[in-house]
Amino acid sequence: MSRASQLMLARRKAGRWHWTDIAAYTYLAFGVVLMFGPVAWLVLSSFKTQAGLLEFPPSLLPMSQQEVMVPGNPQPLPLFEVTMEDGSKRVLAQVRRIGIQAQMVDPKDPTQQFRVPIDKRVPVRQFKLATENYTEPLERFAFTRFLSNSVFVTVVATLITLLINSMAAYALSIYEFRGKNTAMLMVIGTLMIPITIILVPVYLVITHLGLVNSLWAVILPGAATPTGVFLLRQYMLTLPRDLIEAARMDKASEWQIYWRIVMPLAMPALAVLAIFSIMWRWNEFLWPLAVLTKTESYTLQIGLNAFQGELQTQWHYLLAMTVVTLLPVALVFVFLQRFITTGIANTGMK
Amino acid sequence: MATSPSTERRTAAGLLWTPFAALIKLIDLPMRAVQRLIGERRMAYVFLLPNLLFFSLFVFVPLIVNVVFSVTGGAALFPSERPFVGTGQYAYLFDCGSFLDPNSCREDHFWRGVANTARFTLFQVVAMVLFSLVTAVVLNMRIKARGFFRAVYFFPVLLSPVVVALTWKWILQRDGLLNAGITALGGERILFFVDPSWAMFWAVFVSIWAHMGFYTLILLAGLQAIPADLYEAAEMDATPRWRAFWCITLPLLWPNMVVVIVLALIKGVQTFDEVFVLTGGGPGTATLMVVQYIYETAFSNQVQNFGLAAAASVVLGVVLFTLTLAQLAASRRKDA
Prior knowledge:
The complex is a heterodimer of chains A (350) and B (336).
Chain A: H1 2-9, H2 19-46, H3 50-54, E1 63-65, E2 67-68, E3 77-83, E4 89-98, E5 101-106, E6 109-117, E7 121-123, E8 125-127, H4 132-140, H5 143-174, H6 180-191, H7 199-208, H8 215-219, H9 226-236, H10 241-249, H11 254-265, H12 267-283, H13 286-291, H14 300-308, H15 315-347
Helix pairs in contact in A: 2-15, 4-15, 5-9, 5-12, 5-14, 10-11, 12-15, 14-15
Chain B: H1 12-38, H2 43-70, H3 88-93, H4 108-139, H5 146-154, H6 161-172, H7 177-184, H8 196-224, H9 228-236, H10 241-269, H11 273-279, H12 290-300, H13 306-335
Helix pairs in contact in B: 2-13, 4-8, 4-10, 4-12, 5-8, 6-11, 8-10, 8-11, 10-13, 12-13
Domain ABC transmembrane type-1 (chain B): 114-327
Family (chain B): Belongs to the binding-protein-dependent transport system permease family.
Keywords (chain B): Cell membrane, Membrane, Transmembrane, Transmembrane helix, Transport
């Protein structure tokens, strides 16, 4: 402990503690609670039973009432700690509740029966993860369908994005050709036109292509991205030209140079774009919301939104599904955080 | 080019690689033919083609068609079946007694959206700049575990808007964690999504929570580019820290600040998803944003009014275009 505090309090540069240092650490500690807290609470809550979620004030950990099998009863009975009339406390199982009275039985000796006012009993609770929140939606809702739709969209869209954007970046970085500036300008121009302002006409294009309610309607419009072209082009500009000239001498075709030489060398930039694309696609909301109207073509995000809008929100399932939706992004973050932050720092885009 | 060595290896990866390599070879055949036909230099057009095709089909053509939609009426989707109405949609949209009072407008929802979006963007940009500046400055101090703390502030950027909104909705609901805290301190439960002011407050708060990390990163990059010897010189002269901040940090960070402000403005004007999932635009129309108005007018209302939605998006597009020009001007000054 003292070592830990020594480590914490050690200053990189010898000197006294300035009040700004204390303020900084206070701010950071507050930040940890504010940024991590809500997600931690979401995950904890997702393991609570439906009854547990209705409790107010809520318990911190997922607790549920202990149950016990008593001979003579087909169902397990809930356990309570009961304050008896003489002030002693006993652990009893509840057979049924009649108004403000509860009929209780001693689980060790089922012949002993009691009638107890319901305000004299407190549930016996134990820590239990309600994993059924995760397993039941898999069987009962179109949840697996949403999940597979999301995976399909993310994987296919990312592959297409990597392919066509790297091809364009290759053309714009390796060649000198007439119209290059126009092409660059077109790519820059698309940066200024987010999907929010062309929803209706893109919907028309998709209708013309006969793709409404198909997953391709979600995949295609965002496949070409100016961010991707720039990111890859910037990287490809740094590649040595001699390599390409040498390959041309060896009678390699342009496609082979692109695929066999430039693509492997551009791997770091491709990885950054792949991570970005996976995040964009997995999280995409407005466009799929507009173009997908049938439940079976919903992605996870649209499915979650539809599910939360229902009259009686079933929070125990909703929270678990939210955690599942968050999981891939969390994994990407834990393992690839450095790629993402440098990617944003280099392009100023996300 | 000889075959890649991995194609000869009899490993699982090799088995997967073989058909893939074959596919690439297959593409190479027509590509070679095209190359023979048009020559090496012009292959650039072939490589550009798919990308520009996508851009044309899903960006440039729609941009023009959008204008066509906005000057036609009726409920049909295909432009050939839509009667020309001239500036009718715009006239309807702008038919207002006073632009400052949505109630005096014929299309009051649009103007409520405009007013809400303006209010939201104003609060959000001010708070965003403030908090991301403080966070970036703190993260740039000589602190332990900087990588960890940077990650803490950054990770919500990656969460989907639906996940962000549901996470906070769960905390802010009637029997949620926050109300538990309030009652524990002796207060009364607050129905945050029933009170218009609270709903707007949380809409702003949640979107700052979700996106602050991104702007912090931009400012942090700017801070790290400030030469350290400036601060050392200031320390030599026994300059107080706040003065060093005021006279060194702020002026040198200003270009990044401008980028942050304009980017936050551009994003703020387009706000939709988090707020839509969090409040649904409610209570009533208290948090209805322009993009939600466009989405609902075109897609989710009983009568789909594509023309009106297109006219509203043209208006939004003009605003965004102006902001983007401001951004370009700002970043040009930064480069100079």
